[in-house]
Design brief:
- Helix 1 crosses helix 2.
- About 30% of the residues are buried.
- The protein has one domain: Aminopeptidase (3-Layer(aba) Sandwich).
- Helix 3 links the parallel strand 7 and strand 8.
- It has an eight-stranded mixed β-sheet, with helices on both faces.
- The protein has four helices and eight strands, in the order ββββααβββαβα.
- It has about 180 residues and is α+β, with helices and mostly antiparallel strands.
- About 30% of the residues lie in helices and about 30% in strands.
- It comes from Vineibacter terrae.
Length: about 180
């Protein structure tokens, strides 16, 4: 089944995420769902992303990346593919919010390789992730940005994301 969520985007639906390849395209960028065989390739990019952000990927993070590749139902992982080349990755997670009227989502990771930046791929990836979220009934989409990452923050603001008056607080319950 093919749906056209927005001009220039095509989504080929398949579920669950890991059962079949689900290709989403925007111009020359494609979201390629990760599979159980993609764990090591995704980990290479996740380690690079976390190092660039100034914190190493923890052992729990490594386990989470592998769970995304195995098809955890609360997350969808994608390689960003430009033509035949993987130029990054993204992870979209799902939750529920009374305030936002039901299902919400979180763009947990969005990483474009340094050599691929400045070509509009982050903007295209955001449009595709938003379309995927909408198809899955997400009412609100959240993300966080490292302090000092003005380039990423500018991209998110251009896409309509706004800082809220609330602070995100976390408590690790496992490990």
């Amino acid at each position: 089944m093919i749906a056209m969520p927005a001009r220039g985007m095509t989504i080929v639906r398949a579920a669950p995420w890991h059962a079949r390849r689900r290709l989403m395209t925007h111009s020359a960028l494609t979201l390629e769902p990760v599979t159980p065989d993609d764990g090591e390739a995704l980990l290479v990019m996740a380690h690079a992303f976390h190092a660039e952000d100034g914190h190493r990927l923890s052992d729990a993070g490594v386990d989470a990346v592998r769970a995304v590749c195995r098809g955890d139902p609360m997350a969808a992982g994608f390689f960003l593919r430009f033509g035949t080349v993987r130029v990054g990755y993204a992870v979209l997670t799902f939750g529920f919010s009374i305030e936002h009227g039901g299902r919400d989502g979180f763009i947990d990771d969005l990483y474009v390789l340094p050599q691929a930046r400045g070509q509009g791929l982050g903007t295209a990836a955001m449009a595709l992730l938003e379309a995927v979220a909408a198809v899955h009934g997400v009412q609100a989409l959240h993300l966080e940005v490292e302090g000092g990452n003005a380039r990423a923050e500018a991209l998110y603001r251009r896409r309509g994301y706004r800082a809220t008056a609330r602070k995100l607080m976390s408590k690790r319950l496992a490990r």
